[in-house]
Structure to design on (290 residues):
């Protein structure tokens, strides 16, 4: 058995399977996440978030797969009796994109749903996540990367019901510099967005967790939709939810029905570890308790 401090992982994501009383932990797991050839994605499983089994090889590309580097931030969702993985991939001469993979098992093996990413092929994109709206329509929420647009954006595009294609053009939900707490990562006008995750609180308010750089380092902020719908408008909370060199957050419910936040911290390779923090809703806002 492993403890969470034994698991080196970036961009942690938890899938809770209540039928089997099992938590599945996914994330960026390659030894060299920034340079060199990519290997794939590994996952871990646990019944208590303390003792973990693994790693399990959940994705390894076949010889014809288009990408060979920067295999980042896999997220796995159970939808229509299948498991779908949303993950970022990159190759020389090709833009980074979010590709969707599919499996009938949470531990894979996952196979690409299509030959190409679902994000625009001339956009540098990353950190795609799934959102199902009030009409049961699926949406891809993703980052349009600061390396291309300078002021990083988080965008949304409708997905076809089979997740194979995008419907229409992406819309911009937020820009990183719009938040009061962000600072540039380079120069005076270059701001990062990464790790979007949408969550509707008990009052019906739709929140978006996302990460950027604050004066204290890597941080998780929150934006909220004034309409409760994906197209907003979105406003930023003045202060980040977490501001202690940890980020790329997502929320999940434990089997005790507790709301938990997971992030990786610190944000320095190779020391990243998953962290699980209890969160409560207080007066329409999220507050980290532990």
């Amino acid at each position: 058995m492993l403890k969470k401090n034994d698991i080196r992982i970036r961009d942690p994501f938890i899938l809770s399977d209540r039928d089997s009383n099992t938590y599945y932990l996914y994330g960026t797991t390659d030894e060299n996440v920034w340079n060199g050839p990519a290997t794939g994605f590994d996952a871990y499983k646990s019944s208590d978030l303390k003792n973990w089994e693994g790693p399990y090889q959940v994705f390894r590309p076949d010889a014809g797969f288009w990408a060979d580097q920067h295999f980042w931030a896999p997220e796995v969702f159970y939808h229509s009796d299948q498991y779908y993985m949303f993950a970022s991939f990159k190759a020389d001469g090709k833009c980074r994109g979010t590709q969707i993979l599919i499996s009938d098992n949470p531990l894979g093996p996952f196979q690409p749903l299509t030959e190409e990413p679902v994000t625009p092929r001339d956009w540098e994109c990353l950190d795609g996540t799934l959102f199902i709206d009030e009409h049961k329509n699926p949406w891809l929420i993703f980052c349009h990367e600061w390396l291309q647009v300078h002021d990083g954006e988080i965008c949304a595009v409708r997905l076809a019901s089979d997740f194979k294609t995008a419907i229409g053009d992406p819309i911009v939900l937020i820009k990183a510099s719009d938040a009061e707490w962000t600072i540039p990562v380079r120069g005076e006008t270059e701001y990062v967005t990464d790790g979007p995750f949408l969550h509707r609180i008990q009052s019906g308010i739709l929140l978006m967790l996302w990460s950027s750089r604050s004066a204290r380092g890597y941080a998780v902020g929150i934006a909220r939709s004034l309409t409760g719908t994906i197209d907003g408008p979105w406003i930023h909370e003045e202060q980040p939810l977490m501001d202690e060199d940890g980020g790329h957050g997502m929320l999940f419910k434990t089997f005790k029905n507790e709301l938990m936040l997971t992030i990786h911290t610190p944000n320095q390779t190779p020391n990243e570890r998953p962290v699980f923090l209890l969160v409560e809703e207080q007066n329409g806002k999220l507050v980290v308790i532990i």
Notes: The CA atoms of residues 280 and 287 lie 5 Å apart.
